[in-house]
Design goal:
This protein has 155 residues and is α+β, with helices and mostly antiparallel strands. The chain has helices spanning 2-26, 45-58, 80-92, 110-120; strands at residues 30-34, 39-43, 68-73, 96-99, 102-105, 126-131. The chain is built from 4 helices and 6 strands, in the order H-E-E-H-E-H-E-E-H-E. A hairpin with a 4-residue loop joins strand 1 (30-34) and strand 2 (39-43). The N and C termini lie far apart (90 Å).
């Protein structure tokens, strides 16, 4: 009957939920605290970072034309692994590399990215800028006198 189908679906959903909770707990992404009357589930620090990272990767609100989110960082050589991981994260999140430590995105991720950087403790080495204008075309082609605006050319 229809009621039996609903009961089976409910049991399957509870089982799926329990399996998911167990996985998240094993990965140390959540903490489960039981009291006499309730169960409290909260994200761990790693869980918050993972959630922010997923949010940034999936967030697709495009900035208005002419605006960009730029990330400029100078992570010390002693933290090479952190720098490499941060670059990989930016690439996976849809940022484009302008230079080795300068990345840009057309997505509106400024606030979430700022929280992510703060939670990682990288705020001393990372700047995030919401730029409203950008000069286009200066990166294309070889350098030369015709590439320099006339006001800046040396005679």
């Amino acid at each position: 009957s229809y009621e039996d189908i609903l009961r089976i679906r409910g049991a399957q959903r509870r089982k799926d939920f329990q399996v998911t909770l167990k996985y998240l707990k094993q990965k140390k992404l959540i903490e489960v605290k039981k009291t006499a009357t309730q169960v409290m589930i909260s994200l761990t620090q790693n869980g918050r970072l993972r959630a922010l990272r997923e949010h940034i990767s999936r967030y697709k609100k495009i900035l208005p034309k002419g605006e960009t989110c730029m990330v400029i960082f100078d992570i010390p050589e002693q933290a090479r692994a952190v720098r490499k991981t941060f670059r990989m994260f930016l690439k996976e999140s849809g940022f484009l590399m302008v230079q080795g430590s300068v990345w840009e995105s057309s997505y509106d991720v400024f606030d979430v990215l700022a929280e992510f950087v703060h939670r990682l403790g990288l705020q001393d080495w990372v700047d995030i800028v919401h730029a409203e204008r950008r000069m286009h075309g200066m990166r294309k082609g070889p350098a030369g006198p015709n590439r320099i605006p006339s006001k800046l050319r040396k005679f």
